[in-house]
Design a protein that fits this description.
It is a single chain. The protein is mostly helical. It has a single domain (2-182), classed as Farnesyl Diphosphate Synthase. It is built from ten helices and no strands. Helix 1 (2-11) runs antiparallel to helix 2 (18-28), helix 7 runs antiparallel to helix 8 and helix 9 packs antiparallel against helix 10 (159-182). The protein starts with a helix and ends with a helix.
């Protein structure tokens, strides 16, 4: 709980680099999911060594959840609190720090976001500058690491953990399939 509270504190600070983003994200979401995976492993009769390995898997899942949450909040139907509070979620941070043609316009919008039209314009920039693609790649990358980690654990039944990871990644694959079918 202390680590998560510290993560919340870091999340309220100025996040101006990817390193500071990951430090906050790993402290905020990862301990909760790591502990949940760990306790689940112990409750299912896993050895202490296996439970500690699954704790690491849960922390990785926590990173995926944080990125997913950042994307969801950036594209919510309302003028989300992340925009109004000028939080540096991963897609917003990407659009702020990565050089792209609309970077200055994005920065201007961030300074003065007060209505849904401005949020919509900023969301369009997130899509065009590669922020969304970057976040999706980060989720898929972590999913690949998690799948390999699970395979290396050689659990008698990894299906429940596979399903938990699939819950985050399946919407991405569906979105990409729809877009590829349209092209």
């Amino acid at each position: 709980m202390l680590e998560t509270a510290y993560g919340q504190y870091l999340d309220d600070q100025i996040i101006d680099t990817e390193a500071t983003y990951w430090r906050a994200a790993r402290a905020k979401s990862c301990p909760f999911f790591g502990l949940a995976f760990y306790m689940g492993a112990l409750a299912s009769g896993a050895s202490l060594d296996t439970a500690e390995a699954i704790l690491k898997l849960g922390r990785l899942y926590g990173e995926m959840v944080q990125i997913h949450d950042d994307l969801s909040n950036s594209f919510a139907d309302h003028c989300g609190s992340d925009w109004l509070q000028r939080k540096s979620t991963l897609p917003i941070l990407f659009a702020r720090v990565v050089n792209h043609p609309e970077q200055m316009r994005f920065m201007t919008l961030l300074e003065n976001i007060t209505n849904l039209d401005q949020v919509r314009e900023a969301r369009g920039i997130l899509l065009r500058c590669g922020a969304v693609s970057y976040c999706l790649n980060e989720i898929v990358h972590r999913d690949n690491i998690g799948k390999q980690f699970l395979a290396d654990l050689n659990l008698p039944n990894s299906e429940p953990l596979d399903q938990v990871f699939d819950h985050i990644v399946t919407p991405i694959w569906k979105l990409l399939k729809i877009n590829l079918e349209i092209s």
